[in-house]
Amino acid sequence: MKKANLFIIGASKCGTTSFYNILKEHPDICMSSIKETSYFSLSEEKQKNINYQDYYNHCNDQSILGEVSPIYSELHSAPKTVERIYNYNPDAKIIYLVRNPINRLKSVWKQTLHTGHWKRKVYLDRFGIDIPEMSLDFEEAVFEYPPFLDACRYWFQIDGYRNFFSDHQIKVLLFEEFVNEPEAVFKDVFSFLEIENFDISKLEKQHNKSSGKKMMNPKLQSIVESNFVQKIKDIKLLNNFKTLFKEIVYKEVPDDIKINIKLKNEILNELEDDIERILDYAGKNSNYWSFE
Fold first, then answer.
1. Integer Cα distance of 44 and 51 in angstroms
2. Which residue ranges does the chain devote to CATH 3.40.50.300?
3. Rounded to 5 degrees, what are φ and ψ at 284?
4. Considering the entire predicted model, what is its pTM?
5. What local confidence, expressed as pLDDT, does residue 211 receive?
6. What is the phi/psi pair of residue 208, to 5°?
7. What is the DSSP letter of 204?
């Protein structure tokens, strides 16, 4: 059976959902049946209950089998990931999408509010890593919720892959170039994968946008997630008032996050070395990202 040989490792909120949806349209590519298997970062107990190859049962004779799991570029939280991927297929190719870290932090904070991950023990349940609850204050979240800033340490993440995979197996792409020149970016991607170019001009380019999202009201979340409410969710009477229920329970995620100069400089000081080295590795000038 053919093994997966393409891993889009993240980072989260850098266009990975769009990449997944575009790649699966190429006739020579078969993407996993779900976007994020996260298999190689799962706890060993979780892995025992999964046959990884089942994610590719729908594939035929495509030369590329791939998946997209942003957790694969969170090596602080899942340090065994790279070695597991390498042991599975040492000939695999790795694509890593990175983004202006300030903009990424804003986007991932909004996404975490929307999904409710700020409160749930997602990392503990899936990966066996106990991470503290995320603060609802953006500044506190950046420095006290480890996945946020750690996932912006782009060089640390890719250097972990370079310990196992050669540079010709790794490609770092810039989110900003994907947004501005998607056709050129994917022409480069298809060349990297050694398959024919494919016209993506008519495909939808933007998925999972950060704007317009809603979050569960924190004051009501514990009530909504209580056993009583979960049991009555299927009651027809409740369904009849679904719209009203959502209006009461959900509120808009803040769309515009203001970052003062002091906070911005603190973030950039933390990430300075990673920013410089990842941009150099990607062949970009050190001032590619504007932080004005």
1. 13
2. 6-211+262-281
3. -115, 155
4. 0.83
5. 57
6. 55, 50
7. -
The beta strands (E) that lie in the chain are given as 6-8, 29-31, 64-68, 93-98, 170-174, 214-216, 250-252
For the chain, the straight-line distance linking the first and the last C-alpha, in angstroms and rounded, comes to 51
pLDDT in tens, 133-142: 778 888 988 9
The two tokens of residue 100 are 């202006």
Query: Which pLDDT belongs to residue 242?
Result: 55
Map residue 91 onto helix, strand or coil.
coil
Cα dist from 258 to 54, 103, 112, 136, 255, whole Å = 44, 11, 17, 14, 10
Residues in CB range of 19: below 8 A, 6 or more apart: 8, 68, 95, 97, 178
Given phi > 0 = left and psi -120 to 50 = alpha, else beta, which region is 203? beta
| Whole-number Cα distances in Å, 259 to 145, 154, 212 | 17, 21, 20
Instruction: Tell me 94's DSSP state.
Output: E
Count, residues in the chain: 292
Closest CA to 19 of 193, 204, 288: 204
Topology (CATH level 3) of domain 6-211+262-281:
Rossmann fold (3.40.50)
Which tokens sit at 178?
């994907």
d(CA 184, CA 189): 9
pLDDT in tens, 189-216: 999 999 999 999 988 756 555 555 555 5
Q: Is residue 177 over pLDDT 90? A: yes
- Tokens for 207? 């998925």
CA distance 73 to 287: 23
Are 108 and 131 in contact by the 8 Å Cβ rule? The answer is no
- Best CA proximity match to 59, nearest among 27, 101, 16: 27
